Amino acid sequence: MKIVSFGDVHMATRNLARMDAALGDADLVIVSGDLTNFGGPAEARVVLDAVRAAAPRVLALSGNLDKPEVIPFLEAEGVALHGRGVVIDGVGIFGCGGSNITPFKTPTELTEDEIHATLTRGYAAVRGVRPLLMVCHTPPYQTKCDRIVGGRAVGSTAARRFIEEVRPDVCLSGHIHESAAVDAIGPTTIVNAGPFKDGGYIVVRAAGGRLEASLEFL
Fold it and tell me: What global pTM score does this model have?
């Protein structure tokens, strides 16, 4: 199975037109949060419809710049990953949207306890399934994927703790635009594609009971 993931779309879907090669043989697309800029369901639908037109199957979660109402909207559309888990072609996939608390009081922020509880709830639906793919809009704390300008780590301590406990094969993240990178926590590969307008996306391939993830650019 081939999975393509990107996030931090912020309504800028124009790069979808350049992704024919990447999406042509993809089995699944995962949008890892921030479909909109402080938007609600109407704005999220514009992005979701654009992705659906380009991809055979889509899963998504909201980011911190999506209003809280986007969470039930994605649930009603049958694509939600926030606090949910699903098994596709033998791969367990689960996630948590929003972000940890920021100084900017963005629409969907969670405490570290809420992030851990949301990941735990999603993981419960795929417990025992391997390989395992975690999708968390906010990256785990203290990796190459959570550094703001100046180098300070601002990721989620709860996401990191969860990864250390459960050891998923891959964690897809976003949120920190300037930290498009690949890193690892133990056996878990961590990938942040950066904002979609900059052309970053992630390819995850499942084969032989394993996941391999790479960061690509248009």
Answer: 0.98
